[in-house]
User: Fold these one by one.
Assistant:
Number 1:
Amino acid sequence: MMKWCMRIIGAFLLAVAFNAAAADEYALGAGDVIRIQVFQNPDLTTEARVSESGEISFPLLGAVNVGGAGIGQAERKIEQSLVKGGFVQKPQVNIVLLQVRGNQVAVLGMVNRPGRFVIETFDTHLSEMLATAGGVLTMAGSGKAIITGQRDGQVMRREVDLAELFLQDKRDADLLVMRGDVIYIVPGNQVSILGQVNRPGRFPLEDAKMKFSDALAMAGGVSPTGADTAVLEGMRNGQKFYKVVDLPSIYLDENSDMNPDVLAGDSIYVHRAPVFYIYGEVQRPGSYRIERSMTVMQALAEGGGPTPRGTQRGLKLHRKNTAGVVEKTTPGLDDLVQSGDVLYVKESLF
């Protein structure tokens, strides 16, 4: 029984010592609000805010610099000043931290909750601050954390690869952060996917490159109004790169050249699919997508065919020539339809 009691007492004393050490290691900073009490001297009890210069105002002593000092250090400093000034012979000073405003780190950029956060201990690491900010956004991809601050009176700037920090378990990448530091999360390798896709925007590349089809999948694929070709633009070996990608060929042709690599900084654009227009005596007048090698007969069928009052004879085609002038012709049913064509189905006279 005695041994059990001794263990409980030992654990209690250890917890008290640990909490005292944790309190002592917190460095007071600008904006912190503290309550100072002197045993058996209630008239000296005061609440003070640490100024930007690290000072507080205390009765009898005036300005006392506690900035950067641990709570225990600040207590001893006030005790020594009271003794030195002859105000209290054996003072016992107790400081309670009421509000924490100092020792803050700003976490900005591609995180879920950007803002300023308090460093509670001296051994706070980069990964812990990012967790406090809600973690890194998935859009950051294989981005970087840029840390700026002061170390030994010198300006410090470090870049940390997020993949090394979280995926490769590199301990040296998990830097210690200090008060006043600014952490900025910048996105990594990205590709822009625009035009007729279901989710246009900028997307991160998990690796240095990825296949064109995989990049389109990140944007939700081509929308129903999209063309069956897309444009890939970027830089290759310092030269401008431009390629028209035939989308059906990616899946219908085994040639891997039809599915090119997409690199960081590339742009993908999917144009709107070409359409033709049909009106007059047809079942469903309107505009329709032009399929590959579509004929006038197929276009007529797309509109539901002629009404009982309509006729295929005398079908008229309105098409702009190279000069932009609209020409009216009578097309054959096997002629190919072009983008912007207008078909008019006339009314039968008999």
Note: Residues 1-24 have pLDDT under 50 and may be disordered.
Number 2:
Amino acid sequence: MSAAMPVIYLSHGAPPLADDPVWPTELAAWARQLPKPRAVLVISAHWEAAPMTIGATTTQPLVYDFWGFPQRYYQVRYPAPGAPELAAEVRGLLSGAGYGTADDPGRGLDHGAYVPLMEMYPEADVPVLQVSMPTLDPRELYAIGRRLAPLRQAGVLIVGSGFFTHNLREMNPMSGPTDAPPPSWSVEFDQWGNEVLSTGDIDAVLDFQSKAPAPGRAHPRIEHFAPLFVSLGAGEEAGVPRTTVQGFWYGLAKRSIQLG
């Protein structure tokens, strides 16, 4: 039996990620260190729908779910193959645990999926399936991740895609992506998250709203932290998470982790 694939959570960035002087190189180097996946399963902060909804299993137009950017960002293409076999596996794993699923065959990849994958697999040669988050409850998402864990043995890279801190109202886009000191609430939350993850204190992560410093400023709404819970559940047997990308982008923590 082949070794299980790792599980990752990444901070995915906005469409201008492609223009960042550092981040694309970090993602590309990370991908080179991973085994080549048979397929990628993405849980993105930008798709919430209950029950868990399975996106397109054929190549569809991208979902440009952002506003106010230069026109070139709406002309990006990422024609990754669909993953119908993976979709069937996801349905089977979830239905066996009593979770319902739905299908949205016309729903293409949103920017939480294609923006990082363009840097990690620029040839668009790895099949990709995106599924929705059916809830934002940390423990329910962790349980869903545990149900998806067998996909690791089948060569599937499970990707939770969000942002380690995410408060757009307090971003300062005039400061530049990396040269201004990040705000204290973002630094403190990031340091706390690194500590609890590196010691394997998953309960603290799941209960971050009562245990982390400034959780309401780091995440006024938790959808960008929530994909982490799925990744932690899927990687429960893979050991203690380790940081692969760190630092700040316009004051937001871009910490990303790998299990396994």
Note: Residues 45 and 224 are 5 Å apart (CA to CA).
Number 3:
Amino acid sequence: MGDLYVTAALNPTREGRAATASGYLMLFVWLVLLGIAIWAGVSNVTGTEASWKWVLLAVSAIAGTLILCGFYLINPNEAAAIQLFGSYKGTDRETGLRWVLPWLTRRKIAVRANNVISDKIKVNDLRGNPIEMAAQVVWRVTDTAQALFDVEDYKGFVLAQIEAAVRSIGSRYPYDDIEHQEVTLRGNHDEVGAELRKALIERLAVAGITVDECGLTHLAYAQEIAGAMLRRQQAEAVIAARRKLVEGAVTMVEMALQHLSEKDVVQLDDERKAAMVSNLMVVLCGERDTQPVVNTGSLY
């Protein structure tokens, strides 16, 4: 009988509000204790000595030292995760001078927006062509508890997930489509960027991170096929242009024959129509300027 392995699911941590106090209030208390300690010491030295004053001085000094160890600062767009012997007790997002019990530890984390431009990576697109891609992502921490305690290194986690998401998106679409019938990486930046953002939000949710903006900053064929693909693009562009030119020429010839027939300008039999169509197609589809030939005789 084979061994049975049970994989434990990740128990996500959720951010909560920490029980902290204003540092300015505790600073006032500390100053009062400092004044009491100074008064007790000076009065014992310069006046009548009393043992209770020495006790008062010692108590004030110990309490003041404990209060002094509990001060910390929080800058704008910054937070502090509070822990008690490794147990998460909440997050403080209030800016300014803050105070907490000295035996509680504080881990600061920035919640401001971060801008990352990924390295260029080589990806095979939907048609198997090797391409180079890079993305620009604006992200920020929304849940400090998840970012600090649910992943090992949340910044490294972001970089790894950006690369994975770019590879996934790059393999779903072709680089280009000359007929514009498919969603492509080169021709549909908004759609591709929106799908990349959605994929990143799903991937980074486990770390308490959201994505505000993202898009491709680099998109090109890999060097080994860049020349061949450029020639193919040029050939496809020429073919597409020729197709449009022929379609337009045929439409113009049809209009010319229809107007001549409706207004009874000239009566054309099939042979004359064929000659007229041939001449018009040469004029409309030719790459060089045509030279008119004056016919002074009869077609027959």
Note: Helices lie at 23-46, 51-68, 144-149, 154-172, 189-204, 223-262, 270-285.
